[in-house]
Amino acid sequence: MLMRLELPHRYEVARVSEAPAGISQPPVRYRPAHSYDVGSDVLLLEFRSQSAAPWIGSFACRTSDSSGLSVVISSPDPMTAFVIAGGEGYSVQVDAPGHWQPLPVSPVVFAEVLPEQGLVVLGSGNALAVYDPKGLVWFRRVVENELKLRSISEDLIHFSGLDTEAGKTVCLSAALRSGKEIE
Predict the structure, then answer these.
(1) From start to end of 86-163, where are the E strands?
(2) Averaged over 109-133, what is the pLDDT?
(3) What pLDDT digit, counting tens, does each position of 16-70 carry?
(4) 129: domain range?
(5) Based on C-alpha coordinates, what's the Rg of the chain?
(6) DSSP structure class, residue 180
(7) Average pLDDT over the chain, rounded to an integer
(8) In terms of pLDDT, which residue wins out, 109 or 37?
(9) Total H helices, total E strands in the chain
């Protein structure tokens, strides 16, 4: 499992196999609304911050095989963590673990952290989501399937994917901060 903590954050996080001594609360369970898609495996993480008691999160995994992305990413908000467990994505407020929401792209197949710009880009097989310190900047379905990130510049995100109507792979670009497609 990866830890991508390049953005400023005010917490510590570690993967654990069970709740360590000293944490009296049971793990906070995170399950997406579409839990029928989620396997029985969970990712256990211990969070510690100066403004809240330590706690354990039990994050349901979409898949337990090695093809599912598992990573913790510091979000542009220093008290929010993005947890991706076997492709299933969660946004969790570390100092208030009951405040969380599923990430809009599902399953998450790639995540890019842009520290210089204070942004995080998440992608599924057909959609992109971009976050800044205020939260979700934009989310949209950009291709039918097979989304691949090609590159990210200061202002643009370049990607390719399947256009089923044309029956071919297309290369596209969008404005990084607005999601507007650039021709």
Answers:
(1) 88-93, 100-102, 110-114, 119-123, 127-132, 135-141, 145-152, 156-163
(2) 96
(3) 987 666 666 778 888 876 554 445 588 999 999 988 899 999 999 876 666 689 9
(4) 2-182
(5) 17
(6) -
(7) 90
(8) 109
(9) 0, 17
pLDDT score of 36: 46
Question: pTM for this one?
Answer: 0.89
Report the number of distinct structural domains present in the chain.
1
Alpha carbon distance 39, 49 (integer Å): 30
How far is 135 from 124, CA to CA, in rounded Å? 18
Query: Do 30 and 100 form a contact (C-beta atoms < 8 A)?
Result: yes
What is the distance between the alpha carbons of residues 36 and 96, in angstroms, rounded to a whole number? Answer: 26
Residue with tokens 């609360």: 25
* pLDDT tens profile 126-146: 999 999 999 999 999 999 999
In Å, what is the CA distance from 20 to each residue of 45, 93, 98? Answer: 11, 21, 20
CB within 8 Å of 167: residues ≥ 6 apart: none
User: Cα–Cα–Cα angle for 61, 80, 19, nearest 5°?
Assistant: 55
* CA 1 to centroid of chain Cα atoms: 13
**129 Cβ contact partners less than 8 Å away, ≥ 6 residues apart:** 103, 104, 105, 121, 122, 123, 136, 138, 139
Q: Give strand ranges (E) for 6-155.
A: 11-15, 28-30, 42-49, 52-60, 71-74, 80-85, 88-93, 100-102, 110-114, 119-123, 127-132, 135-141, 145-152
